[in-house]
């Protein structure tokens, strides 16, 4: 039976309730006590001061693109499962005789429960939420992820399906990912929806050897490419959380420590897509100026602007064309103070024949490809970013060393040369 209403909670406080009315529309009402707090979770498009003017008002968000925001406030967009997570939920529900079209957005939030990225939690939580706290077998998870991508989870043992559901329904993006806790001493992997056991930490892992060709076997090599990009980005002065390769049966899975967890404490997270209501599915629309304006709107200062500019320069030179608005984020502590999130999904992403990555998804002054050094310097000047020339030189030096990073990580020659041939050293 579908969930008719859900409570959105943050650090033990109810933020709002969302309910379906008689016409099937979603209505949102903020909790009066939360509105009195200093937690401004949507300071740009739904500031807390505005909510205080009429704290009991019923809000509707039908004006936001339905496919992305699903009738919810934009600040919840990062809590919804994306492509891979939705595929898992759909197939699990199908195994229970429930068609995907009958699974509502509130059902999906209820299924997410306390497992969302960031700090939001949802009640009532689905009774189907996985409760297995035992260590998981990585090779089995890889096989289940491959099956999920092909829609072939029939006859899958219940425990194997539960294991994949325990790690695969929270993280965003189209690629198969696992939200895990990992013990670096024992190499044990556990489902990431629980508090990390003693000696373990919260990580996000991207499956290697699970691709569109559905072939499981030898590594596809993209885990190594992403790890080499991590090393290159760090050399370029870009702030990222610790990342590693998880080696398993000849595959190299890229893994990165979660920045929305400090121990087992949850940190509030918003992507640019949520904070600025900038639909990540749009092409040829968004501009890096909007990212920098968001930083100014949050009052994060010159250091954050400088770091953001460094990331923009890296994306341009290193051909990360998957620079949509869900790939830039911000964090807020329980004290209500915002900061720029570490960089993530920093990856070679260029396909001249692709639907999405044949050009950048965020432009510079209306240009989505063919950028020059002058374009970047003009952007820096517009936002009064100091030492822009030096930043570009440092990024260029790091990206120029791609072959060295690739060699250190043992990226295949084919992938090394493909990436090298498409870099733009400005």
From TrEMBL:
What's the source species for this entry? Polynucleobacter asymbioticus
Family, as annotated: Belongs to the HipA Ser/Thr kinase family.
Q: Does the keyword Disulfide bond apply?
A: no
Per its record, how is this protein called by name? Phosphatidylinositol kinase
Name the Pfam families on file: Couple_hipA (PF13657), HipA_C (PF07804)
> Which segments constitute the HipA-like C-terminal domain?
169-402
The root-end lineage is:
Bacteria, Pseudomonadati, Pseudomonadota, Betaproteobacteria, Burkholderiales
Q: Which residue ranges does the record assign to the HipA N-terminal subdomain domain?
A: 7-122
- GO cellular component terms listed in the entry, alphabetical order: cytosol
**Keyword set, alphabetical order:** Kinase, Transferase
One Gene Ontology molecular-function label: protein serine/threonine kinase activity
């Amino acid at each position: 039976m579908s969930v008719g209403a859900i409570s959105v909670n943050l650090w033990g406080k109810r933020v709002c309730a969302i309910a379906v009315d008689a016409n099937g529309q979603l209505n949102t009402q903020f909790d009066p006590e939360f509105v009195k707090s200093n937690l401004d979770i949507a300071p740009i498009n739904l500031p807390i001061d505005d909510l205080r003017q009429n704290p009991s008002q019923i809000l509707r968000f039908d004006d936001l693109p339905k496919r992305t925001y699903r009738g919810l406030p934009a600040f919840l967009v990062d809590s919804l499962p994306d492509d891979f997570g939705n595929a898992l939920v759909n197939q699990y529900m199908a195994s229970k005789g429930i068609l995907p079209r009958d699974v509502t957005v509130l059902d999906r939030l209820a299924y997410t429960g306390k497992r969302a990225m960031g700090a939001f939690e949802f009640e009532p939580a689905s009774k189907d939420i996985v409760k297995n706290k035992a260590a998981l077998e990585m090779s089995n998870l890889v096989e289940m992820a491959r099956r999920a991508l092909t829609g072939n989870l029939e006859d899958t043992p219940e425990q194997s399906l539960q294991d994949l559901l325990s790690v695969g329904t929270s993280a965003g993006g189209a690629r198969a990912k696992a939200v895990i806790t990992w013990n670096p001493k024992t190499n044990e992997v556990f489902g990431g929806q629980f508090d990390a056991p003693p000696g373990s930490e919260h990580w996000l892992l991207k499956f290697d050897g699970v691709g569109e060709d559905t072939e499981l076997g030898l590594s596809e090599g993209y885990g190594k490419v992403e790890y080499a990009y991590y090393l290159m980005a760090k050399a370029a002065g870009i702030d990222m959380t610790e990342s590693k390769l998880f080696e398993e049966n000849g595959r190299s899975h890229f893994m990165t420590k979660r920045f929305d967890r400090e121990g087992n404490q949850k940190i509030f997270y918003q992507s640019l897509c949520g904070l600025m209501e900038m639909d990540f599915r749009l092409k040829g629309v968004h501009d890096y100026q909007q990212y920098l304006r968001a930083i100014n709107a949050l009052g994060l200062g010159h250091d954050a602007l400088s770091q953001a500019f460094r990331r923009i320069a890296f994306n341009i030179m290193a051909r990360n064309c998957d620079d949509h608005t869900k790939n830039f984020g911000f964090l807020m502590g329980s004290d209500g103070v915002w900061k720029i999130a570490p960089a993530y999904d920093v990856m070679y992403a260029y396909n001249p024949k692709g639907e999405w990555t044949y050009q950048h998804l965020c432009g510079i002054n209306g240009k989505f490809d063919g950028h020059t050094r002058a374009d970047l310097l003009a952007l820096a000047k517009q936002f009064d970013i100091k030492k822009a020339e030096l930043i570009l030189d440092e990024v260029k030096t790091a990206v120029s060393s791609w072959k060295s990073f690739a060699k250190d990580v043992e990226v295949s020659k084919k992938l090394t040369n493909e990436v090298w041939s498409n870099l733009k050293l400005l």
